[in-house]
Design a protein that fits this description.
By secondary structure, the chain is of the alpha/beta class. The two termini are 26 Å apart. The protein is built from 10 helices and 9 strands. It is globular, with a radius of gyration of 20 Å. The chain has one domain (4-315): 3-Layer(aba) Sandwich (Rossmann fold), CATH 3.40.50. The strands form 2 sheets. A 7-stranded parallel β-sheet has the order 3-2-1-4-5-6-9, with helices on both faces. A two-stranded parallel ribbon has the order 7-8. β4, α6 and β5 form a beta-alpha-beta unit. The structure holds NADP nicotinamide-adenine-dinucleotide phosphate (NAP). NADP nicotinamide-adenine-dinucleotide phosphate binds at residues 57-63, 81-83, 108-110, 136-139, 161, 189, 191, 233, 235-236, 238-241. The chain crosses the membrane at residues 6-30. One of its GO terms (molecular function) is oxidoreductase activity. Belongs to the short-chain dehydrogenases/reductases (SDR) family. Pfam families: adh_short (PF00106).
C-alpha cells in the first residue's frame, strides 16, 4: 500500500523538522519516550479475579499479537475471527502455555446483523468479567481505485466491518465494563490514513477517521471508568499489507503491540512507534492537496501493477 522511498522521505522530513525546530522535537521526546516510561500503566490494573480480554480479528496479524500479549499478562481471552481452525489452535496453545481460559467465536462479522447474531454474542458474554476490548478487526479492498471504480460489495463490507461492527460491539461491552470495580480498557485500531488524504483507499481511510473520532469522544465520556485509546500506525507486516520484509518503517505485529502497551491510560490517540510518528510529522508538513496528489500518483502506479498481475494470472 505504498512506496518505500515515499515512506522514508516522510520519516526523514519529519526527523529533520524535529531537529531544526526544537519544540516539536521536545514534544516528541516527551510524548513517545519520557512520558510512557514515567507513567506507564500496567495492564494488570484492568484485571480482576477472572477477567477476559476480547479481541476481534484475532486469527492473524496485529489481533493475534494482541491476543498473545494479553494472554502472557494472565488475561483469559475471547478471540473472534472467521477461521475456526486457527482460533482453535490458538486456544490450545495459549491455554497450555499461559494457564488461561480461551473462548473461541468463529463468525464472519460482516454478516453479524443478520439472524440476530448480536443477541447470540451478548448471550455468550453474559456473566463474564470483561476488562479489555480490542477493536482490531478491519479490512481494506485489494485493488486501489477511484471511488467510482470501487466495487459496491467492498464498500459495504468496509463500512460494515470497520464502522458498524466496532460501534455496536463497543456499545455492548461498555454496558458490561461500566459496572466493574476495576477500570476497563478499550483499544481501537485506526490508522495513519485517518488524518491524511488517502485517495484510492478513500473508504478505508474515512472509516479509520470515524474510529479515531469515535474513540476520542468515548475517551472523554468514560475517562473515570474506562481508558479508551486509539492507535494510528503506518505499516505493519501482516496479511493485509502483504509486506514481506520489516524495515525502519515496517514493524512486526508483535513489535508494534509492545509499543502499544506503553501508552494505556495516557492519551486518547497516538501513533506509538517513533519512526511512524516522524512520518506523521512529515505528512503534516505537506499541504493536504499536495500530499493527496502524491498518494494518488503512487496508488495509481500500484493499481496498474496489480491489474497487470491479475491479467497475467488470468491468462495462465
Ligand atoms: N497492517 C497495517 O499496516 C495496518 C496499519 C494501520 C492500521 N491497521 C489496522 O489494524 C487492524 C488489523 O490489521 P492487520 O493488518 O492485522 O489485518 P489482517 O492481517 O488482515 O488481519 C485481519 C484479522 O481480522 C480477521 N477478519 C478479517 N475479516 C473478518 C470478518 N469478516 N469477520 C471476522 N474476522 C475477520 C482475520 O481473520 P479471518 O480471516 O480468520 O477472519 C484476521 O484475524 C485493522 O483494523 C487495520 O485496518 C493495520
Amino acid at each position: 500500500m505504498g512506496s518505500n522511498t515515499g515512506a522514508l522521505i516522510l520519516g526523514i522530513v519529519g526527523g529533520i523538522f524535529c531537529v531544526i525546530t526544537i519544540i516539536p522535537g521536545l514534544i516528541l521526546l516527551w510524548k513517545l519516550i519520557v512520558k510512557p516510561k514515567l507513567f506507564k500503566n500496567s495492564p494488570q490494573k484492568y484485571r480482576g479475579k477472572n477477567t477476559y480480554a476480547i479481541i476481534t480479528g484475532a486469527a492473524g496479524g496485529i489481533g493475534k499479537a494482541f491476543a498473545e500479549k494479553f494472554a502472557k499478562e494472565g488475561f483469559n481471552l475471547i478471540i473472534i475471527a472467521r477461521r475456526e481452525e486457527i482460533l482453535k489452535e490458538m486456544k490450545q496453545e495459549f491455554e497450555e502455555k499461559y494457564q488461561i481460559n480461551v473462548k473461541v467465536i468463529a463468525n464472519d462479522l460482516i454478516f453479524i446483523d443478520k439472524e440476530n447474531q448480536w443477541n447470540q454474542i451478548e448471550k455468550e458474554l453474559k456473566g463474564i468479567d470483561i476488562g479489555v476490548l480490542v477493536n482490531n478487526v478491519g479490512m481494506c479492498q485489494y485493488l486501489p481505485g477511484k471511488f467510482g471504480d470501487i466495487d459496491i460489495k467492498d464498500i459495504n463490507n468496509m463500512v460494515s466491518l470497520n464502522i458498524r461492527v466496532l460501534t455496536i460491539l463497543t456499545h455492548i461491552i461498555i454496558s458490561i465494563m461500566i459496572k466493574r470495580k476495576e477500570k476497563g480498557l478499550i483499544i481501537n485500531m485506526s490508522s495513519a490514513t485517518s488524518f491524511v488524504p488517502f485517495p484510492m483507499f478513500q473508504v478505508y481511510a474515512a472509516s479509520k477517521a470515524f474510529i479515531k473520532q469515535f474513540n476520542d469522544s468515548l475517551y472523554s465520556e468514560y475517562k473515570e471508568k474506562i481508558d479508551c485509546i486509539c492507535y494510528c500506525p503506518w505499516y505493519i507486516k501482516t496479511e493485509m499489507t502483504k509486506i514481506r520484509e520489516t524495515s525502519i518503517y515496517v514493524l512486526e505485529p508483535e513489535e508494534f503491540v509492545e509499543y502499544c502497551f506503553l501508552f494505556f491510560g495516557q492519551q486518547n490517540h497516538i501513533d506509538p512507534y517513533w519512526f511512524h510518528y516522524l512520518m506523521d510529522i512529515g505528512a503534516w508538513l505537506y499541504p493536504t492537496d499536495i500530499f493527496g496528489s502524491m498518494i494518488l500518483s503512487m496508488q495509481t502506479f500500484v493499481r496498474q501493477r496489480l491489474l497487470l498481475k491479475l491479467q497475467q494470472k488470468n491468462k495462465k
